[in-house]
């Protein structure tokens, strides 16, 4: 049965129904005047149904403040001819379709059934009596990348500790300890350990720099790049585990919020196994992270940290120097224990392209502007303060301008001291 899309438009009391088939062709259109209610309703509402199901009700007015462009330029018809065309033409489109078809065939085996839910219940019951942390670390050894991270932690004396007060896992840099909540489900526990293993390894490589040490604009980029790299590492190790026969972790990727990253990674890995080592699969997942709504959540968290710890931010950092250091840090984050650095060829693109740098949420952009404004005012006030000369003992030597009263000559001051009556 072909899919039928029904769109309902309600405007000023009149309801219009438009039906489209699965190819987008127009099928039917009707107009109905419903019964007018006493209480006023919304002026405009849009809803749709797919095969007699209504999964979403949406409105034309979003939750973001309205803003307008300062300059509007109309595109002429001749300018459409100058738009860039798809590289490769039909051949590139056919290649992309083959990637989609290959991964869709592969992903069917990871659908969650009722039997899988029963097995998950049995696994969770066994977690109450076993050593979950040791079992998770032993299971991660089936991945070559995870084994490299575990060996690096052992070389730098980084230990693991079970801590029920931690939500998932965290890396204690001062204590050189990865604290893990061992009460988590086995697959979730492995993903949490993978994230902190990558964070600890980057710290040992000199890439664990606090984003607050950068200019606010570059701090946003650094925070995003680090979060995206951690998610890409989780997806890559989960893929290596499923290649080794440990398919449960990738099944969790397929049925979790990381599914978009997993599919982007899997499409490249299914078509060419060399994409694991040359970084093409990781780049696809990395770019998908920035195209999602994850940027908004991480930006809000970082901006809250900026507002709460404003005194600890570096206020005299040059934007040019911060940009140079940020580019070097992006290249350092892309390094791997083996294989190609997947971010090094795209360092300048990450630092300049709006896909990676733009703050899309209006509230986050407003708070970020406020932080930069306060930073500029503080720098201007510091520049206007007089410089104190080292070893100075008098106000004039310190550079303080005293001009409230006329200055007397030293000889007149000495004479007044001898004859106070004058």
Mean pLDDT: 75
Tell me, briefly, the overall form: globular
The low-confidence parts are 32-45, 59-86, 393-410
Strand tally: 8
Helical residues, percent: 40-55%
N-to-C SSE string, H for helix and E for strand: EEEEEHHHHEEEHHHHHHHHHHHHH
Which structural category do the helix and sheet elements fall into? Answer: alpha+beta
> What's the story with the biggest beta sheet?
5 strands, antiparallel
Strand order of the largest sheet: 3-2-1-4-5
Instruction: Output the number of helix runs.
Output: 17
Strand coverage percent: 5-15%
List the helices and strands and how they pair.
Blueprint: E1 5-11, E2 14-20, E3 26-32, E4 44-50, E5 57-58, H1 90-107, H2 114-127, H3 132-140, H4 144-155, E6 159-162, E7 169-172, E8 177-180, H5 186-204, H6 216-243, H7 248-254, H8 259-271, H9 275-278, H10 280-290, H11 294-308, H12 319-333, H13 347-352, H14 354-357, H15 362-384, H16 395-398, H17 410-418
Parallel strand pairs: 6-8
Antiparallel strand pairs: 1-2, 1-4, 2-3, 4-5, 7-8
């Amino acid at each position: 049965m072909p899919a039928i899309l029904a769109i309902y438009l309600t405007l000023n009391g009149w309801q219009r129904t438009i039906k489209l088939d699965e190819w987008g062709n127009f099928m039917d259109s009707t107009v109905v005047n419903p019964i007018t209610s006493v209480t006023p309703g919304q002026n405009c509402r849009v809803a749709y149904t797919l095969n007699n199901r209504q999964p979403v009700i949406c409105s034309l007015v979003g939750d973001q403040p309205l803003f307008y462009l300062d300059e509007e330029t109309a595109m002429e018809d001749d300018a459409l001819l100058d738009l860039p065309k798809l590289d490769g033409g039909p051949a590139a489109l056919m290649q992309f379709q083959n990637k989609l078809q290959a991964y869709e065939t592969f992903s069917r085996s990871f659908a969650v059934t009722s039997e899988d839910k029963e097995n998950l219940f049995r696994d969770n019951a066994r977690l109450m009596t076993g050593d979950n942390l040791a079992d998770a670390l032993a299971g991660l050894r089936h991945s070559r990348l995870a084994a490299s991270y575990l060996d690096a932690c052992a070389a730098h004396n980084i230990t693991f500790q079970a801590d029920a007060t931690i939500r998932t896992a965290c890396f204690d840099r001062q204590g050189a300890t990865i604290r893990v909540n061992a009460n988590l489900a086995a697959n979730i526990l492995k993903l949490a350990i993978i994230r902190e293993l990558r964070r600890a390894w980057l710290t040992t490589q000199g890439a664990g720099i606090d984003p607050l040490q950068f200019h606010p604009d570059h701090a946003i980029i650094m925070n995003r790049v680090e979060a995206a790299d951690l998610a890409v590492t989780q997806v890559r190790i989960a893929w290596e585990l499923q290649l080794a026969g440990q398919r449960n972790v990738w099944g969790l990727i397929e049925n979790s919020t990381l599914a978009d990253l997993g599919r982007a990674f899997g499409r490249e890995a299914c078509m060419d196994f060399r994409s694991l080592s040359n970084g093409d699969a990781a780049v696809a997942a990395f770019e998908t992270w920035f195209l999602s709504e994850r940027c908004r959540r991480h930006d809000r968290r970082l901006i809250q940290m900026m507002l709460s710890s404003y005194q600890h931010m570096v206020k005299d950092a040059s934007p040019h120097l911060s940009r140079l250091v940020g580019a070097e840090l992006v290249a350092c984050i892309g390094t791997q224990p083996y294989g190609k650095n997947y971010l090094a060829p795209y360092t300048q693109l990450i630092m300049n392209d709006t896909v990676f740098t733009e703050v899309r949420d209006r509230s986050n952009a407003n708070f970020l502007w406020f932080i930069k404004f306060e930073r500029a005012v503080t720098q201007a006030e510091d520049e206007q303060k007089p410089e104190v000369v080292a070893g100075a003992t008098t106000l004039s030597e310190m550079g303080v301008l005293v001009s409230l009263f006329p200055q007397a000559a030293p000889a007149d001051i000495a004479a007044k001291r001898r004859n106070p009556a004058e």
